[in-house]
Amino acid sequence: MTHLYDRHKAVIPDWVALYYRQPIEITHGEGRHVWDADGNSYLDFFGGILTTMTAHALPEVTKAVSEQAGRIIHSSTLYLNRPMVELAERIATLSGIPDARVFFTTSGTEANDTALLLATGYRRSNQILAMRNSYHGRSFSAVSITGNRAWSPTNLSPLQTLYVHGGVRTRGPYAELSDDRFIEACVADLEDLLGHTRDVAALIAEPVQGVGGFTSPPDGLFAAFREVLDRHGILWISDEVQTGWGRTGEHFWGWQAHAEHGPPDILTFAKGIGNGMSIGGVVASADVMNSLDANSISTFGGSPVTMAAGLANLSYLLEHDLQGNARRVGGLLIERLRAIGAGSELVREVRGRGLMVGIELVKPGTDEANPEAASAVLEAAREGGLLIGKGGGHNTSVLRIAPPLTLTVAEAEEGAAILERALRSVQ
Fold first, then answer.
1. Above 70 in pLDDT, residue 55?
2. CB atoms < 10 A from the CB of 224, how many?
3. What pTM was computed for the model?
4. I need a labelling partner for 228 at 20 to 30 A (CA). Which of 40, 87, 255, 290 fits?
């Protein structure tokens, strides 16, 4: 593995991060498990950054990919594409957006980039509201609206971005307020902000912040924001790249926790829909989606192979009620992790919904982020046979746990036990 690591460093940019002091090569997987090149087996609680949403080597998806690849792999959006139309029809219906149109991309970054293009063109404004602690991708426009310093390598931008309070419930100036007062304070901040700027195109927000450490506001915050936005004609973009497809258990989309005033104007998705295949996309009402006044195509977006994977994966997810499984098994996992956290001085908070759980680590006896402990627990978990992720705002001090949605109760218990040992070893 050292030889491959040396080759990696010789040709891959330094800013492409690798986990672990001794990085591992994952060679194959099945269900909720993966194996590395040395033959070690791991319970996978991160799914390739929430992308292997259903299961590794899911037969229904691999069969659909193989059969479609045997017919035709690529044609582009210049030709009619039956799998693309079929998947678009299903997503349009599931989105909750009236008279919806769907445009497929190859990633969440590209999906958010497209959403920004639509919103700024529709509103004839380059001003965007974004949430503090947010992450929306790695493109030039996406990093310019990312409110997380660790993932925003430049302050140059094609957009003017204004950052709003509300994405982090338990830190910041409003942390001590009740949920209702927290929402009131965030709305007042938004109202004040809009009094100091010209026309704004859109607010883009993750219902649950992913890279930011699985933080979220109280239910109803974005509905309250929506009342303000509607008065100003400002669009709401819901970034569902990580929350989509039932991962939170309580809802199919994250925006549905804030649904009092209807769905978002634009919804973006990616990651899990292809169960590892490269799919992203944008959903918007016809008047917004069709507002572009120039031609556009996507060479690789909507590929027949990736669309076949998405159709098979979405069908499996719905037919097997994986949203319900995320709610049931995720609820048990969160409670188990909270019990573990109560016995550890490193753990400040265990938070999350469904199979989207964050464990925030601090220096014992303080409220100070502890990225060193997060890295150490990540290593110890891997040594114990568990793969997890990490993230967080000011410092990367949150353990991110997001297994495939087919996770069993026994596997949840196994993973929690490994995490408990990992935390004890670091203390």
1. yes
2. 21
3. 0.95
4. 290
